[in-house]
UniProtKB/TrEMBL annotation:
Domain of life of the native organism: Bacteria
Keyword Oxidoreductase: no
Transmembrane segments annotated in the record for this chain: none
Keyword annotations from UniProtKB, A to Z: DNA-binding, Sigma factor, Transcription, Transcription regulation
Pfam families: Sigma70_r2, Sigma70_r4_2
Protein name: Sigma-70 family RNA polymerase sigma factor
Organism: Streptomyces pyxinae
The RNA polymerase sigma factor 70 region 4 type domain, residue ranges: 100-152
Annotated SUPFAM superfamilies: Sigma2 domain of RNA polymerase sigma factors, Sigma3 and sigma4 domains of RNA polymerase sigma factors
Domain RNA polymerase sigma-70 region residue range list: 6-73
Family that this chain belongs to: Belongs to the sigma-70 factor family. ECF subfamily.
């Protein structure tokens, strides 16, 4: 498989995945671009020796998203008070209210719960693929998804 073809077919899906994990389109695009750059640097234009390049990229995107979130958490702990930038007004116009509610509730889940739900319901991955991407057992993925759905339901109910 050629990396250009892979980029053409999987870039948008990976950006969507990263957006749901880091909650910022520009950062998500950077994360995906960095994942493709690392893949190219490590394996060149031909990916014949790499068994599953899509799984490699998904794992890279999830790991890079975790790093972004860690850096953000560290920055928030800094003693300087920082104002949070307001999202652009068109962002809220584009999302229907129930989508905003779900995204808000998703943001209150733990990192692992959010990752599992995003990979399962947004990226449509199987439990085995999620386990491989996150480096977890299938049982952990299954129990995390169950707890995450219950927590998501509680958050949505509390908001109403």
């Amino acid at each position: 498989m050629d990396i250009g073809l892979l980029y053409h077919h999987r870039r948008l899906a990976l950006i969507r995945l990263a957006v749901l994990l880091v909650d910022d389109l520009a950062t998500a695009e950077d994360v995906v671009q960095d994942a493709f750059t690392a893949l190219l640097r490590r394996h060149g234009h031909r990916l014949d020796e790499l068994g599953e390049p899509e799984a490699y990229l998904r794992t890279s995107v999830v790991n890079a998203s975790r790093s972004v979130l860690r850096r953000r958490r560290t920055a928030r702990r800094a003693p300087l008070a920082r104002e949070r930038p307001c999202p652009p007004p068109e962002e809220y116009v584009l999302l229907r209210e129930e989508h905003r509610e779900v995204l808000g509730a998703l943001g209150r889940l733990t990192r692992r719960q959010r990752e599992v739900l995003v990979l399962r319901y947004w990226s449509h991955l199987t439990e085995a693929q999620i386990a491989q991407t996150l480096g977890l057992s299938r049982g952990t993925v299954k129990s995390t998804a169950s707890r995450a759905l219950a927590a998501l339901a509680r958050h949505l109910e509390a908001d109403r």
